[in-house]
Design brief:
mainly beta, single chain, elongated
Amino acid sequence: MTKKIAIVLFLVGSAVFCFSEQVVLKNGDRLTGAIQSMDGKKLVVKTSYAGEVAIDWGEVSQFTSDKPLVITRTDKQMLSGTVSTEGNEVMITTAQGPQKLALADVSAMRSPADQAAYEKSLHPGMLEGWAGGGSFGFALARGNSETTNLALGFSAKRKTTKDAWVLDAASIYSTDEKLNATTANSFQGMLRYDRNLTKRLFAYGVFAGGYDALQDLNYRLVPGAGLGFHAIMSDRTTLDLLGGFAYTRESYTTGLTNNLFNATLGDEFAYKLTKNTTFIQNLYYLPALNNTSIYHVNGNAGIATKINGWLTANLNFNDRYNSKPVLGNKKNDVLLTSGVGFTFGGKPAK
């Protein structure tokens, strides 16, 4: 008799163990695994047979977890303990005792490790949380022509739930040894800080600058500020619209110096064509308010495809228009480059 009781208890305990961490979907499907996180859109479950599985939160009917989770309520208050559902309510067994919470009042759920990582992402050090990449293009011709072309690019972003830093830089250098001439020598860079005012509206401050030897431009410095709007915010597509004002100081080798007060209108767009391929585009229009004959238009478009975990193949198009260049120079400069690149860092915080 004792042996039979032991067997029954073992079977019951095994059943409890097997179903103690389980997610039941509205269509009746069941998934066994450890709940990792829920961000209001996706419930992530780590299984022993398929790794991490993301499930639409709206498709979840019931779930249980025998390991502690950190629950964030819609009023930003947090509870910690094991979790199970009872109809439209969540039972959280905390150290102070069980507490019930309406399922609709659950904003997020995370494992203690994921919660610690999330909280750290909210307040990273200035050198932490950056993600981005660089590009490198090089061409060398010898024989009937003797040319050297070098194109470099770099972009990085440090984004938290409250703000973001954006850094971009690009340079091209080209020579023709038969002509004993430099056919391209330019650099342009930009550093911008964004501060969220609402979920979609943000304020920004920016400083941009550069030089272009072929346009006789010693330097161009452009500090500015304005407002931006996150028009599209999805995992696959992002679109930001920006508008503001800037001051431009230009110095040319001819002795000409311009001091301009500009309006700024622009957009920044990114779209994931596939899991490994992303298309990016940005366009800026800067008309001078104190000299209506002068305006600049800068546009970029590019495609980057991941070759492996960090290596990319890149194709970039750049167009820069100056309505009033110095005498002898053309108004429009077009640049098409291709090459390889690298990526670093993780996905920026949303």
